[in-house]
Amino acid sequence: MLVSLNWLQEYIDVSYYSPEELAEIITKTGIEVESVEPVAEDIEGVVVGYVQSCEQHPNADKLNLCQVDVGQETLQIVCGAPNVAEGQKVAVATPGAVLPGNFKIKKTKLRGEESNGMICSLQELGVDEKDVPKEFADGIFVFPEEVEVGSNAISLLNLDDLIIELGLTPNRSDALSMAGVAYEVAAAIDGSYELAEEKVKTSNEEATDYISVVVEDTKANPYYGAFVIKDIQVGPSPLWMRNRLTAAGIRPINNVVDITNYVLMEYGQPLHAFDYDRFGSNSIVTRRAKDGEVMETLDGQERTLSSDHLVITNGDKAHAIAGVMGGAESEVQDDTTTIILEAAYFHPSVVREASKHHGLRSESSTRFEKGVDPNRVERAGYRACELLERYAGGTVLHGVVTHDELDRSEKTVTVHTSTINDRLGTEITNEQMADIFRRLQFSYEQNGETFLVSIPTRRGDITIFEDMLEEVARIYGYDNLPYTLPAGASQAGGLTMEQQLKREVKAYFEGAGLHETITYSLTHKEKATMLVSPEVEKQAESPVGLAMPMSEDHGYLRLSMLPELLESLSYNVARKQENLFYYEVGTVFISEEEQVTKQPEEVLRASGALTGEWVAHPWQQEKKSVDFFVAKGILEGLSKQLNLPFTFEKAKLEDMHPGRTATVSVNGQTVGFIGQVHPKLQKQLGLKETFVFDINLEVLFNEYQKEEAFQAIPRHPSVSRDIALVVDEDVTAGAIEATVAAAGDPLVKEVRVFDLYQGEHLEEGKKSLAFRLLYLDPLRTLKDEEVEEAHNRILESVKEEHNAELRG
Amino acid sequence: MKERLEQLKQEALNKVENAESVQNLKDVRVEYLGKKGPITEVLRGMGKLSKEERPVIGQLANDVRESIAEAIETKQSRLEDAAMEKQLEEESIDVTLPGRPVQIGGPHLLTSIVEEIEDLFIGMGFEIKEGPEVETDYYNFEALNLPKGHPARDMQDSFYITEELLMRTHTSPVQARTMGARNGGEPVKMICPGKVYRRDTDDATHSHQFTQIEGLLVDKNVRMSDLKGVLNAFAKQMFGAEREIRLRPSFFPFTEPSVEMDISCKVCGGEGCSVCKGTGWIEILGGGMVHPNVLEMAGYDPKEYSGFAFGMGPERIAMLKYGVDDIRHFYTNDIRFLEQYHKA
Ligand SMILES: [Zn+2]
Which residue intervals define the domain B5 in the entry (chain A) (predicted)? Predict the structure, then answer.
């Protein structure tokens, strides 16, 4: 809502506050002032001038030589505007004036002729292009005849005004009018304001002789009032009205339309004028539209209606969508002489339905949608009649033709001072309460500390005690509330075990060298099903999609964080950032239904994506690109951190390198996967070798056992033995390890690969794997013979199971 | 004999003095102190001496041996020190060359802020609650006093999946769920951080996905002044004790009265500047007293229980606290952005 300070000042005296102070007060009592801006830059030396004569410039086709009377003197001015003419009253910037953009006006010569000033367009005076009336868009501005020559053009044009922009919350639609703002400001500054009474001189002709009103759906349209005004002369509205409309952000059109808009801004009540002679009957019937009914609206669009919409008809044809937009057929035109003026109450939901359906949000529909003040509907009609009489030559016929079932009664709310104090933590007295209601102009009956407060219908937002609590609090001042701390029983705050583990896992990844990232949960359909861990793939029927996505890129819920993580890598690589080690902890969304009806399961997972040089010492020429084992090492570290053994098993997964990918499982459950991104996909994303992992944290957290008992430190030394085994290429280290561990049980406590060799001195198709074995009995020192015996057993087993030979 | 011993001593000490290597010293030791050495020889000839002279010469011979041995040892350690010094000199490096880099990761700025806020409220006895990001229309709207057709639903234009399911537009449904689970009988003191989603086109100040943290306290006799006290304590810890706070009326469907909280502008100290749009204040969070309809729907009797709730956006806080100028930075994951905010 844009509020002209000059306009407001006419309703309530705010002159003893600076605009900034006023803004602060309004904000603190309840309506946020978003900005206070001057209408135009500060300008002086622009006056009204009278064009005494206007002749063509002797040396230039497109210039005119004008003699302009500016009061004290007559100036010769060269003017290039196409619409300048003798007899006009115009805005003249006299020598010494400074126009917006620091444009200084000086005496000068143009093509040999003296020019002592400038005749201005509105744009040159700093008026926004969109606020300039059409007829002056391409030339100078012309004042109406009645203005005085020599007077200050800037204040006549209201360019010395300030505009206060209010950020209205949806409940405060009462302030969608100047009257509403004035009531609010009056309460805020403890001033006084009351909406002035309307004064109409009506003719002896009866409106009922011209029109009748029938309402079919009284719930959707509890009140319809039709005024008839004859002898209308359509023309421009007075300058002050045009200025105020412009200040409110509404473009002036003609006096009839401007007056309905002016009353809309003043009272908050939308009105509509129909051309009586083009209406096609003398009977107004408001009804639900028929499904498929078609009408042409003011903007020239064909609109197809439905029974959700209310229309104003002539008994046959629709002439307006109630509260939203009028029809083209009965639009007020330059030759209109008689109008029907509609002042009505349309139910918020029926207007919302129509404005939403047709995509037509207007000043009018937004007010109906929020509910207009039932006590101001008819008054607004009278106010418009008053203005039409005065500024459009209208003769108002006697009476308003209505259908009226509107509830205009005031609601009441009972308020106890003690309850208010209990809820606010204050010590407000009964006298202070009474004073607050007086400022708000709420009438009340007081009985000790009990107030029965009547809520004016303009404040439809107040219905319950808590609403009154807010009214009292805001007028009393939020600043004046004390600071206290809750008195209730205290509880120990803290993190649950899962929340703690989540923090630990994140800290671990960061310590391991990964950067935390956050990507979007909503992704492209294709990406939603890419790089999905096998156990998720098995469970999920299809990715969950939005009913109406804003773009294809964010249309589906992810089943894996990896595609967006890879996208992030790709983004960085394109910016020459090539060493990237990222992880994300977040949820994926698994639905087991093909057509989603239930909330999907949201599973917490951790994903990582690594590319570039893991070790890079520029001056020592040490460079090591990230590889499978760097990524695996990070997961193994996590396994150690959570004290949960991870098992890695080679796997072939879509979009992954077929030879460098493994599933990860814990206690027999698959929880994720790890590996290199398929080179085709790498290439597509502009990435070098990139390694990823994705793992279910919820399963890990469920399996996690907090170690509580102390584990004794072994007192006896362990014995280590190394063996190098030659095996076929396809025998995995993991398989040998398993055999060694089984055969060596219980003495072998650890088996670790420390070397892998292939090549010279070895047969084709063979490899040598070296292991370090750790023998230990925590209760005693092992004898050499025992170790020897176990060692031999191990060698036999690996020979038997893997055809492994000791490397000589 | 005495003279002979003195002479031997002198000879040996000279040789020790002149020795240039550990090997030279070994030679001296063998030559003088060995079993075939001259001192041993002298001692062998002691039989010829008188009974009185014998112990004197014996003593003298021992002394001579000891002082030679001592001289050898001293010299040896001197030679060894010199040799080590020389070696260390050769091992000298250019200490200005760069060290071997340690791969350092770190948390996302939003996580740091969320955890900081979590910890502040944990300190005030709040617990942390989480909830689903795909919500039912009931918990996201209806349970929060936003029935179907309520105009304020437009404030939070949402991503629907079906008519009944949507991406949550705020973390408030977690409050409704938590209250609902307590059967209207127990106090609630919680905060809920999480991702939320709204139908916004991504630009410098809008993101279709963002983060929210909300808090809720429901108990008997909770007052609006308590909300003011808790928020004040939070703001001073989060933004600094020197910052002023101000509450002003606002509107949220799930609270009544509703408030918005501003903190004094750090940039201009309240004088007014471009950051605070000339007002001297910066809006930081919204909240209010829990609406009686919300309490009732969650099973609490609004006559007996009251409460307050508040919510804020970590992105906004980060933007204010660190001057981040574009909300998209939080989701683009540019390494140059991520690395800036890894606090040690
Ligand atoms: Zn500032």
Answer: 408-483
Nearest CA in chain A to B139: A599
**Is A467 among the annotated ligand-binding positions?**
yes
In this prediction, residues A465-476 reach a mean pLDDT of: 96
Q: Give the span between the Cα atoms of B249 and A25, in whole angstroms.
A: 12
CA of B282 from ligand 1 middle (Å) equals 8
Residue ranges for chain B with pLDDT beneath 70: 151-152, 154-156, 342-344
Q: How confident is the model at residue A472 (pLDDT cuts 50, 70, 90)?
A: very high
Amino acid A483: pLDDT: 94
DSSP string covering B220-276, please? ET--HHHHHHHHHHHHHHHH-TT--EEEEEEEETTEEEEEEEEEE-TTTTTS--TTT
The DSSP letter of residue A717 is P
Q: Which helix (H) or strand (E) holds A445?
A: strand A444-447
Q: Omega of the bond prior to A746 within 30 degrees of 0, cis?
A: yes
Residues in a beta bridge with B307 = B218
Domain spanning B109-133+175-341, CATH architecture:
2-Layer Sandwich (3.30)
- Give per-residue pLDDT as tens, A570-621: 999 999 999 999 999 999 999 999 899 999 999 999 999 999 998 777 777 7
Segment A640-663, tens digit of pLDDT: 999 999 999 999 999 999 999 999
Closest residue in A to B159 (Cα) is A546
A258 labeled binding residue: no
Contacts of A24 in chain B (CB under 8 A): 279
pLDDT digits (tens, 9 = 90+) for A71-102: 889 999 999 898 999 999 999 999 999 888 88
| C-beta atoms of A510 and B222 within 8 A | no
For residue A489, is pLDDT > 70? no
DSSP A607-618: EEEEESEEEEEG
Q: For the residues A381-396, what does the mean pLDDT come to?
A: 95
pLDDT at A436: 96
Task: Give chain B's radius of gyration (CA, Å).
Answer: 43
Residue pair A676/A660 in contact (Cβ under 8 Å)? The answer is yes
Does this model's pTM top 0.80? My answer is yes
Optimal mutation site among B116, B133, B248, interface A, most CBs of chain A within 10 A: B248
Question: What are the residue ranges of CATH 3.30.930.10 in chain B?
Answer: 109-133+175-341
Centre of ligand 1 from the C-alpha of residue B341, in Å = 24
Q: What is the pLDDT of residues A729-772, one digit of tens each?
A: 999 999 999 999 999 888 888 899 999 998 888 888 899 999 99
Cβ contacts (< 8 Å) between A488 and chain B: which residues? Answer: 187, 219-222
Label each residue of B232-246 as H, E or C: HHHHHHHHCCCCCEE
- Using CA atoms, how far residue A152 sits from A4, A44, A49, A92, B305, in Å, is 19, 9, 10, 10, 63
List residues, by chain if needed, whose CB lies under 5 Å from ion ligand 1. Answer: B 265, 267-268, 273, 275-276
Question: At A475, which helix (H) or strand (E)?
Answer: helix A465-476
Domains delineated in chain A: 2-39+162-189 (3.30.56.10), 46-156 (2.40.50.140), 202-404 (3.50.40.10), 411-478 (3.30.56.10), 497-703 (3.30.930.10), 719-806 (3.30.70.380)
Helix (H) or strand (E) holding A119: strand A118-119
User: Distance between CA atoms of A629 and A633, rounded to whole angstroms?
Assistant: 6
The pLDDT assigned to B22 comes to 85
Amino acid identity for residue A368 in this structure = F
Residue B229 is nearest to which of A485, A568, A596, comparing CB atoms? A485
Q: Which pLDDT score, from 0 to 100, does residue A666 have? A: 94
User: Which tokens hold the place of A462?
Assistant: 């107040």
Strand partners, A339: A229, A275
Q: How far apart are the C-alpha atoms of A17 and B252, rounded to whole Å?
A: 30
